Structure to design on (580 residues):
């Protein structure tokens, strides 16, 4: 997986999926760019992560650990222009998390990691030059770099499926890859 | 997207929303002024819609109020505030108001969401509203029964039980029915306006037999006093008004029609040579009503001696225990907070990429994880169809 930008900004879908995978730290380390998340997403999704079916609230612990270790940088608006764009996007998307993610990515020229259909089409319309990554693309790349066996990868994908309740939509480019592994 | 949305937004509406949010979280105008480092008079001007907000100020205020920025700028259908309707209709003390106002506001928000979803998916809720019944100077019981018979006929219900009353009222009539958590003494809230139509909030925490009763009660208000908002709770009246007496009489005729009930009672009586508590429980389960409601109905019909309920209660009758012993399962129900059409609109909007997953979760009033569970269930519910087939138009060749 080649990333054309210095930073990747994760949206809430991806944060939830990576936490559910149980391999958040390893996955982040495999991404060849600085990974970030907006303050808006961090604040809201912590509550969701607490509900991940882990005995010891591993989802939240993983999320906090990657932040403390600097693997995941929490970013907030840095200019009036970013704030203005965020408010404009909130009007369009009706979703603060996706709006903040897109606004910061657009102004700083960062790649976006999202699985959200609406957010993908919106960012492609607003900033077609920005790279958009998905949960599966990132997990696939990590699994290849880490030489995971099919069984190990299946365990990870199943965790994302069952704990994070994620499944790719019908037009996802990696749908058949995912389906083959999940069998 | 070059223009600043705050330059074009309706400042008055924005100001009102900000004021409501500030009050809801218990902040004063002075507190809010500190948040954006300004004078209190500036907050006054902002809330009156006389001063334009900077993006940074809106973000700070939204965060301080514990709200999202989208809550303030997202285009949302404008509806007449429910509180205004209810305040005009009811005089309540402060304590009562503090309890019920958040629920009325929640109902309004849900109705607004419903309209928004209809607009996003371009699929308005079909309405099949009967004309309002004129019950002027009619005797209460006769009017209640006559409306019940007419409505059963219109809805094609015959004189049998109504298994899924909520679905019938939502889908056949087009009433918006939400299940909302309320304090125990509240049963139902009914409201109507031209844009939204009839909407009812039912106490989620009540058992289904009671919720069905409350739904029928609210439905009567829709049928006979359509434009009069209602909050139904115990001990509300010193002297019960006629409209309320009619609404109280209607559910028994609507849920337990005389002809059908009489026939089934006689069948049971003939088979056993007596009418036993087991028969009573079976019959109540069949009609989806409480034991108490059925007994009173049979007493009124002269089929049981008066005082039967009191005698059973004095003997220490434990309704739930007997129901379990008789193997009577919970009656058929759909206790979702949101109407089924509402949920289908939301999943359609999500799957078509018209709303984000976060917004989908907001529409359902749950977090993202629960939203994903509901999305899966809704897709599965569509006859086990996979995502690509769910939205097919089967009438297209």
């Amino acid at each position: 997986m080649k990333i054309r930008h210095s930073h990747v900004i994760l949206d809430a879908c991806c944060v939830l999926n990576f936490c559910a995978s149980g391999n958040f730290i390893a996955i982040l380390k495999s991404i060849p760019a600085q990974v970030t998340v907006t303050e808006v997403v961090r604040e809201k999704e912590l509550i969701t992560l607490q509900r991940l079916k882990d005995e010891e609230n591993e989802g939240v612990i993983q999320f906090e650990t990657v932040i403390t270790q600097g693997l995941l940088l929490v970013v907030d608006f840095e200019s009036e222009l970013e704030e203005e764009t965020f408010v404009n996007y909130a009007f369009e998307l009706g979703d603060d998390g996706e709006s903040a993610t897109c606004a910061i990515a657009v102004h700083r020229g960062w790649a976006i990691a999202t699985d959200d259909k609406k957010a993908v089409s919106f960012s492609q319309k607003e900033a077609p030059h920005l790279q958009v990554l998905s949960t599966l693309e990132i997990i696939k790349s990590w699994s290849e770099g880490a030489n995971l066996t099919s069984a190990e990868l299946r365990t990870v994908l199943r965790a994302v499926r069952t704990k994070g309740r994620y499944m790719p939509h019908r037009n996802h480019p990696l749908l058949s890859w995912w389906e083959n592994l999940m069998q | 997207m070059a223009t600043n949305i705050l330059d074009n937004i309706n400042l008055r509406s924005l100001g009102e929303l900000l004021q409501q949010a500030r009050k809801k979280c218990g902040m004063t105008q002075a507190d809010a002024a500190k948040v954006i480092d300004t004078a209190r008079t500036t907050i006054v001007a902002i809330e009156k819609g006389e001063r334009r907000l900077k993006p940074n100020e809106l973000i700070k205020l939204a965060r301080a109020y514990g709200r999202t920025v989208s809550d303030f700028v997202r285009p949302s259908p404008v509806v007449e505030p429910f509180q205004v309707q209810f305040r005009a209709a009811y005089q309540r003390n402060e304590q009562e108001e503090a309890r019920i106002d958040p629920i009325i506001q929640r109902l309004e928000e849900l109705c607004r969401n419903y309209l928004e979803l209809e607009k996003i998916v371009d699929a308005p809720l079909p309405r099949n509203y009967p004309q309002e019944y004129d019950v002027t100077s009619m005797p209460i019981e006769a009017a209640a029964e006559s409306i019940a018979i007419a409505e059963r006929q219109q809805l094609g219900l015959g004189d049998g039980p109504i298994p899924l009353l909520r679905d019938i009222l939502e889908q056949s009539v087009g009433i918006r029915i939400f299940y909302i958590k309320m304090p125990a003494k509240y049963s139902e809230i009914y409201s109507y306006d031209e844009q939204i139509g009839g909407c009812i909030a039912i106490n989620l925490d009540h058992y289904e037999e009671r919720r069905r009763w409350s739904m029928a009660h609210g439905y009567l208000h829709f049928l006979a006093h359509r434009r009069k908002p209602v909050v139904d709770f115990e001990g509300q009246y010193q002297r019960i008004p006629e409209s309320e007496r009619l609404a109280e009489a209607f559910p028994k005729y609507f849920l337990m029609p005389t002809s059908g009930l009489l026939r089934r009672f006689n069948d049971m009586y003939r088979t056993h040579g007596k009418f036993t508590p087991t028969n009573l429980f079976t019959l109540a389960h069949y009609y989806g009503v409480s034991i108490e409601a059925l007994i009173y109905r049979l007493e009124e019909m002269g089929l049981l001696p008066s005082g039967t309920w009191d005698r059973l209660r004095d003997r220490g009758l434990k309704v739930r225990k007997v129901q379990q012993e008789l193997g009577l399962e919970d009656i058929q129900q759909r206790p979702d907070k949101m109407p089924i059409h509402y949920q289908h609109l939301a999943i359609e909007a999500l799957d078509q990429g018209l709303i984000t997953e976060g917004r989908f979760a907001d529409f359902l009033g749950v977090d993202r994880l629960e939203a994903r569970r509901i999305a899966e269930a809704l897709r599965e519910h569509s006859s086990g169809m996979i995502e690509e087939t769910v939205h097919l138009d089967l009438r297209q060749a």
Q: What stands out?
A: The two ends of chain B are 40 Å apart (CA to CA).
